Each structure stands twice: as structure tokens, then as C-alpha cells.
Amino acid sequence: MERPTIAGRTLKFVVLTAITLAVLYPFGLALGTSLTGREESIANGGSYVLLPLHPTLEAYKVVLSGGAVTRAVLISISITVIGTAASLLCTVFLGYALSRRGMLFGKPILLMVLATFLFTPGMIPSYLMVKELGMIDTYQALIVPVLVNAFNVVVVRAFFQNLPEELFEAARMDGAGEWRMLWRIALPLSKAVIAVVGLFYAVSYWNTFFNAILYLNDQAKHPIQVVLRQYIFRGNAQAGADIAVISNLPAASVQMAVLIIALIPIVIVYPFLQKYFTKGVLTGAIKG
Amino acid sequence: MVATTAPPPLEVETEVRPQRGSLRERLRRDWTLLALCLPGVLYFAIFFYVPVLGNVIAFKDYAPFLGINESPWVGLDNFTMLLAEPEFWTAVGNTLQITALQLVLYFPAPIALALLLNSLVGHRIKRFIQSVVYLPHFLSWVVVVAMFQQVIGGAGTVTNFLNSHGITIGNLMSNPDTFKLLATAQVIWKDCGWGTIIFLAAITAIDMNQYEAAAIDGADWKRRLWHVTLPGIRPVVLMLLILRLGDILSVGFEQMVLQRDAVGAAASEVIDTYVYYHGVINGDWGASTAAGLMKGVIGAALIYAANKLAHKFGEQGIYR
């Protein structure tokens, strides 16, 4: 096949560079601004700074030394850890049972899971259910209503189905029941898919925003994404400005420090996630 | 599907869990598995199927202190009330406009990016760009909107840069006239990269011999793209288009809630936010449930119809 022309290659290079920069620039800008100290901010007219000359962690120290952001971070961490563990357990249990051929009621239960793809119950009935269960203003409201994701069940089930049946056969010969087979055979062979599904759950719990404003009236219970919104959008970022006044820091630095805190766990788990997700997404898409 | 005359696969004794035996025997054998299903089944029952039934309040004059059962039936009153409500039609109009913009501008974007990425020869560079463009998918909407704010908001760096060079774009983050384009741009920034995954996989699955045959026949890259690559990914494109059709009435809910203060309800109200503000906030339960129910039914009907249509054109669709 012929080689691409110089012009074509240049164009490609320019387009891809532009796309990459369009993604990375806002990250850099937020990080740079969050590390900007008072003098430098004044010199820049209080605006955002991509590359601070004298980076300082002041803004992080201030927002993480107690107060609304610190509390929200702790809440979000707890929700994420507990929620991910609970979701993973339920998803793996259901996915495993549905992967065993000929299980009693296997067909109807599978249909019950798949039917959820076609329709949504709607916000009001879901809200009333949560209310009925007395979960308004409780942390459970951020976990229980989103406990199991049907797509993740399908992904896990597909993975378990592809494990060689002989292994289970051999274990059965040795007298193992389904419970033991799940823990001793299925799970050890499925670390990749467990990792990716767990990370998907963790990301969605960490990013929880709407369920928090829907179900939690008590501001003291708000997770980090809701507090971030308060800092950046609500009432001209009053919260951020208040802290800035008290601590003598530029408001933009404080706001961007909260922004970075709200996204840093994602960036940390991202490399692990990325190693697996292509595979996870595709098994789900093909088998679904 | 032409060759359906192939012999059925041999029924060897690989079936380790035979479907015979009395119910009681099978129960005794499968009770562990059933117990494992229990949390998940309970979850779907309580948070999916019961709320689906809860949609009856669309036909009731729901009063919280009476509860769903005791509230009186009102027939289709909620629907007639809703349809006479100008604000509801604003929400429908905004939803359809944003969906149309997304279909035209956002839907093809991941296909184009996937083709571009696929044409890269260097593996490391390709991997690097993939890592970068997938990342925004995992950010929350609060973070994404904040990112846009610092770049093209009133005090944004790009806004300032353009201002200082004599180009005034104003504050794009609070301009109701351009909001729908902005919302589409945000979706593209967040999900275009992630959307390439499925197309890249489809492109990789195309038989390389087809390209070689086409090249031998003298087809240049444009013709190979048109006659080999695009037909090769057509089933995937159609499948995603069908799924998108089912979602035609759901556009970025959190995205709209977050930017409502800045651009106002007239520009950013969509069906989902209408349901939220009129139902949960203002307590107009019946009418907003009716809006949600109509949305759900239309979505399911669209998926069904689009899938039928795909079969008519001889495509796989999403289910048979």
C-alpha cells in the first residue's frame, strides 16, 4: 500500500495534537492554579495560572485541615469503599449463579435483569421508594438505590461462562459445592474482570452527585462532588471566596484545589482501570 | 443468516446440570445458587420493578400523606394537564434540539476519531493518545463543567486571551443562546474518546485480506475507507444508533442541573429536569410522573421500532 503523503501526515499530527491538548490543558490549568500562591495570583490579576513559578500547597492545606471539604472527602471515601464492596459482592453472586447452566429459575432471573435495559422506572417512583424506605437523609441512599448495575452483572456472567467447565467438574468430583467453587475456582481466575467492574463501581460512587442532592437535604452529609459544586458555581463561589478571605489565599486557588481533590482518585486508579477496561467493555457489549 | 441447515450440535453428556428431576430435588441441588441470587433479585425487585408499578401515580392525584394506594384515581387528568403546560413543551423542545445536535455533531465524532487513531502506525503514540482521550469519561459532570468554566467562562483563560486580541466572545458559560451547542461540546469533550473503543474494536475485526485485495485492485485509501472500513463497522454503528434512539429523550441530566443557574431554565430545561423540579421540588407528583412515564414508554417504543427497522435492512440490531 502507498505511503501517506507529507501533507496528510502533517494534518493528522496537527489534529491529534489539538485533541490531546484540548483534553490535557484544563487539567494542567486547574493543577497550576491550585498551586498558585497569593503574590503570584495578584501579579496575574487573580486569574488562572498554568505554570506557577513558586508552587505552594497552601490551598490544599487550608481546605484539608477540617471544614466542609475535609468532611466531604471523608464521606466520599467511606461511600466509595463500602458501596464498591457491597456492589461487587451482589454483582459477583448474581453473575456467578446466572452463569451456571441449568440453574433452577435461571432463565426468568436472567430476563428480570435484562429487561431493566429497556425501560426506566422514572425518577419520581424511585424517589418515593427511597422515601418510603426511610432512607432520605441517610448515607444508605447513596448506595442502596444504585447497588447493582445490570450491565456489570452481564459482564461478570459472560466472563464466568467462558471459564473451562472441566475445572468445575473436577471440583464437584472432589465434593465442592457452588459456594466453594465460586471462591476457589471462579474468582481466582477472574481477577481482571472483578478489578474492572469494581473500579467502575468505585468511580460511580466517587462521582455521585445527583442522588446526593435528590436524597440528602442535610448539607453536612454532602459528598465531595456536591461540595465542589458549592465552591465553584453556587452564589458566585461564596464558599471558596470565604475560605480565601480567611486564609489570605486567592479564591481561584482554593476552588481549583477542591476541583483537583475531587478528581485525583480517578486519576490515580485510571492506569489500573485502563489496563483492563477495553476487555471488560467488549465482553459486555458482545455478550449483552 | 443463510445456512440454517447445518446439523444441530451433538448432544454429548456435557450437560452437567440436567434439567430433570422434581422441583424439590432441583431446589435442594440449587439452593446455594438461589441464595446467591437473592441480594441482586431483591435489589431489582425493590428499586426497579416496584417503582415501575409506582408509575400508577401518573393516573392518580397523589398526596404524600395518603400514600399511593389511598390517593384517588383521576384517569388521564395528569396527562391533559401536563400537555397543556407551556413549560413542559419548552422542556420537550430543548430535549429534542439537544438530541438533534448530539446526533449530528456528537454521534459521528467517535467514529471519526477511531478512524484517525486506527490510521496511526506508531503503537506507543496511539496508546498514549487513547489514554488521554479516554480519561474525561471518568470525571463527574461537576468536574467537567468546572473545567469548561476555567477555560471559556467569564474569567476563563481562553476568553481572556481572545478579549486581549480584540475578539469578544462574552461568557459562553452563561449565554442561553449558545447553551445547546456548549452542552454538545461538553458531551464531546467528555465521551468522544471513550466512544472510540467499540469502533476501534470493530475496525480491528475487519479481515486484513479485504484491504490487501482492495489495494491490489488499485483502491486508494479513500476508496478502501469507503468500500472496506465503513461497511465493516456498519453493524456496530447501527447498533449504537438504535441504542441512542432509545435515549433520544434523555439528555445530560446532571449537566443541565449544574448549569441551570448560569443560563436559566428556559434554555436548559429538559424532560428529566422538568420532572425533578416540578415533582420533587414543587410537589407536583402526578404530572411529573406522567412526564417521566411518557418518556420511558416512548424510549422503549423507539428501541423496539428501530430494532425492527434494522432487521428490515438485514442488520443484526441489538436483539432478535
TrEMBL record, chain B:
<feature type="transmembrane region" description="Helical">
    <location>
        <begin position="103"/>
        <end position="121"/>
    </location>
</feature>
<keyword id="KW-0812">Transmembrane</keyword>
<feature type="transmembrane region" description="Helical">
    <location>
        <begin position="133"/>
        <end position="152"/>
    </location>
</feature>
<feature type="domain" description="ABC transmembrane type-1">
    <location>
        <begin position="92"/>
        <end position="306"/>
    </location>
</feature>
<keyword id="KW-0472">Membrane</keyword>
<keyword id="KW-1133">Transmembrane helix</keyword>
<feature type="transmembrane region" description="Helical">
    <location>
        <begin position="31"/>
        <end position="50"/>
    </location>
</feature>
<comment type="similarity">
    <text>Belongs to the binding-protein-dependent transport system permease family.</text>
</comment>
<keyword id="KW-0813">Transport</keyword>
<dbReference type="GO" id="GO:0005886">
    <property type="term" value="C:plasma membrane"/>
</dbReference>
<dbReference type="InterPro" id="IPR050809">
    <property type="entry name" value="UgpAE/MalFG_permease"/>
</dbReference>
<dbReference type="InterPro" id="IPR035906">
    <property type="entry name" value="MetI-like_sf"/>
</dbReference>
<dbReference type="Pfam" id="PF00528">
    <property type="entry name" value="BPD_transp_1"/>
</dbReference>
<feature type="transmembrane region" description="Helical">
    <location>
        <begin position="232"/>
        <end position="253"/>
    </location>
</feature>
<dbReference type="GO" id="GO:0055085">
    <property type="term" value="P:transmembrane transport"/>
</dbReference>
<dbReference type="InterPro" id="IPR000515">
    <property type="entry name" value="MetI-like"/>
</dbReference>
<protein>
    <submittedName>
        <fullName>Putative aldouronate transport system permease protein</fullName>
    </submittedName>
</protein>
<keyword id="KW-1003">Cell membrane</keyword>
